[in-house]
Amino acid sequence: MATCDHLAWLRHVEKGDTGEVIFEDTGRFGRVIAELPRPDSQNLRTALFVGTSAKDTALKQLFTRNNIGRRGHRHDINLRADTASLETDSPLIFADSNPFVNNHTERSHVLCHETVSYPASWRPQAHAVIDIVYTRLLFLFIDVVCLFADDFSSLDAVALRLMQWADIGSAATGPSTVRPRLLIIMSEDLPHSTEMYENLEMTLHSGMGSRMMETFSAVKVFQLGGSHLSLLARHQRLRDEIRKQTEEMLNTYFKNNIAKFRFPARRSHFEQAGYGLPGSLGVLS
């Protein structure tokens, strides 16, 4: 098999004629693990970045040594290892995804890596497939979810998406403290940004906030620096925050004596989750 440099990790295909949903695992997780110098002794930290243009800008500034923008596919969930942390005891691997993506209608036909397909036993009705993938699969592995509010049409749209995640619900069965943390990221200098920030904070501390805590162990609104700063400087605090949050999550796993069970070496993420097929994710329509 040819050397593979694709970044796509997960794809979801919905057949137009039958509505059948098929998940495609590209084996990217195993290839990322293989890049680690000491995979058996290193403890992974994980992050998921959800958004479009603001998300892409952030990735380029947060991971300056990763050549972000190369080979990533906007319609797939991509996965990378943070090059700067590869040699550390707790390297960071991160996924990124477009929350507005349409379902693929055709299967993948690449030859450089094996793709394993998993047909789902359910049909999407009330929720988009991508939201089901987030809540019922990815959130099982992710320490910190970074949601870029600037990439949504309004804060109401952000709140609606969060409510959809809460409606779908988490598939996690462990302690609530090891569920992912959510960072809602917004610019400091958008028009009415202070009012928007305060309104979002109030929303999260209302009844919606209590529902979100069934999916996340913590929710925080985070403002980037103003546009008077360079792009790199604007994202410095976010870089520090992600490092802090992922390290705290790793410590939480250790306290619960489950760190070593999170990522058995080089196994399919579906197998790691204990789900033979995405159809057993238990998603309600």
If strands are numbered along the chain, what order do they take across the biggest sheet?
6-2-1-4-5-3-7-8-9
Please estimate the helix content. Answer: 25-40%
What is the 3D form?
A: globular
Q: What can be said about the biggest beta sheet?
A: 9 strands, mixed
Q: Spans with pLDDT under 50 lasting ≥5 residues?
A: 264-285
Secondary-structure element series: EEHEHEEEHEHEHHEHHH
User: What gap, in angstroms, lies between the N and C termini?
Assistant: 39 Å
CATH architecture annotation name of one domain = 3-Layer(aba) Sandwich
Task: Report the mean per-residue pLDDT as an integer.
Answer: 80
Question: What's the CATH H-level superfamily name of one domain?
Answer: P-loop containing nucleotide triphosphate hydrolases
Global structural class: alpha/beta
How many strand units?
A: 9
Rg, rounded, reads 18 Å
For the record, what CATH class of one domain applies? Answer: Alpha Beta
Question: CATH topology of one domain, what is it called?
Answer: Rossmann fold
Give the strand content: 15-25%
Number of helices: 9
